[in-house]
Structures
1.
Amino acid sequence: DGGITQSPKYLFRKEGQNVTLSCEQNLNHDAMYWYRQDPGQGLRLIYYSQIVNDFQKGDIAEGYSVSREKKESFPLTVTSAQKNPTAFYLCASSLSGGPRSTDTQYFGPGTRLTVL
Amino acid sequence: DQQVKQNSPSLSVQEGRISILNCDYTNSMFDYFLWYKKYPAEGPTFLISISSIKDKNEDGRFTVFLNKSAKHLSLHIVPSQPGDSAVYFCAASDYSGYALNFGKGTSLLVTP
């Protein structure tokens, strides 16, 4: 079955530690995205990647880093510089990441990160 | 600055009746709009979309209406079913945008 997987579903980390969230897709999509959702809030864009080996900052990139070495994978690292990392993190992908992405974005199941 | 606004945090509707979820936007450059449905602790699921060249799009029980002059769109669900109970997000993009702008969501509860 084609889809987007995120692992783990729940993640606990101590303050000051870096943590990497996994996102894999087998939809053959070019574009991938990371969003963050906080209670009572919409989804806010952290990073996006239109194509392999390229990525761009979204609205709230500070304290996060990404890589896109393979088409299928777009891992997100939450660094110790992120002041409020506890949130629900969602990965998405779309067929095209061109200048005008009208393609529907499909989301993974999400990872809930709690920093203790 | 929230460019996509869903001013009703919650909505309760009886099973079989119509659910109307509203969304307003401020950016006149937005030309593509989507609705997503989200259950707790899960990723959003795409529901329906509409391009600005249209004012209505239907898919089964779901219809989205777009009023460009008012910068307003709405999602109608008829008839509403208990399984429709979820949070509904409105999202929009513009020609130069690479990603979506989301509203804060409306929590729909359909009661038997």
2.
Amino acid sequence: GEDVEQSLFLSVREGDSSVINCTYTDSSSTYLYWYKQEPGAGLQLLTYIFSNMDMKQDQRLTVLLNKKDKHLSLRIADTQTGDSAIYFCAESSNSGYALNFGKGTSLLVTP
Amino acid sequence: EAQVTQNPRYLITVTGKKLTVTCSQNMNHEYMSWYRQDPGLGLRQIYYSMNVEVTDKGDVPEGYKVSRKEKRNFPLILESPSPNQTSLYFCASSPWFVAGELFFGEGSRLTVL
């Protein structure tokens, strides 16, 4: 199956920007997604980007997509302690009936 | 409130004792799916359903059964649980006919002794 790769851990200071990176393998993926998981909770969709877009901005979140390099990034501006969570990158599977998730990046925001 | 509800949230059971994890969504979604989350392995899809009475296997279906008799419910059945099914299970639904914008339940942590 396809592999979605993410770094496992990121630590930033409160107020700084966070950038979480992801590489994916399926160039035919129509959409790419970012999900957030807080402790003891399910995953929550943060944002997604259509494959014909290079960038999408939504308040403090900016998603950049480089299709040539199959690279996706999530930038969180003015990171707050409440942003501490695990962030998952995901792509649509070939069938479309599943999402292939990365293993998640654990973001720690320190005061 | 729009939500996906799973029960039980926590369960400790013994090998071979049949159990069912229920999942219900109140958003009239067609698509529903089960994932398991394991350390170092991430999230893996067990089964999915595109519509009532239509289900199919995901990446790790062995040892599991599902049914979709009503649109809102998608129970996960472990006929004879084994310790390697100890995991955190998530049910999800989507307003699309395929996986996409997934709405997740809060998870069911299952321990099989």
3.
Amino acid sequence: NAGVTQTPKFQVLKTGQSMTLQCAQDMNHNSMYWYRQDPGMGLRLIYYSASEGTTDKGEVPNGYNVSRLNKREFSLRLESAAPSQTSVYFCASSLTTGGTEAFFGQGTRLTVV
Amino acid sequence: AQRVTQPEKLLSVFKGAPVELKCNYSYSGSPELFWYVQYSRQRLQLLLRHISRESIKGFTADLNKGETSFHLKKPFAQEEDSAMYYCALSGRNTGFQKLVFGTGTRLLVSP
């Protein structure tokens, strides 16, 4: 029972490099999210997808793009990584709207040097 | 604007002592409030939500609309309660499915 799976778990990038963080859920959830977690700032929403085929900006979308590939998968892309994007990234999913429980992946620790 | 405030970055208590992790929010309307917990080397997970009015692992939280608070309480802390705790809200103004998180409080329970 995998739940929400993120890859990779760790990544080091040089400034200017690009990469894609992958996320997949096997719970048939409609909504998926990408958060970043920084010390003293909690979790901040980057992008979310309320349902398959839709994506919307969250609180801190600059420097990121997302793709809701299908109902299961929601990827986050950094086109030109910057040191300010050093963070722990979490993917999450929830069944639908209306205050339902969000299930989180194990996180990706990204360092941009 | 919707906002969740957790004033304490760190709360350190001894085993058996009462615990109260504070959470205040600002929201126009009726929010739904949650507490999420992240134990060491584990993923973030839901601890409890106000609509359920349940006690999980001895923790309870009551929504006080007058004080706009949703404090998490436990009468007798255990060492295994040591973790990072996040208060979160969602509602019509946030788009329901979007959770707005506080900055988190690290609870450290010492023997």
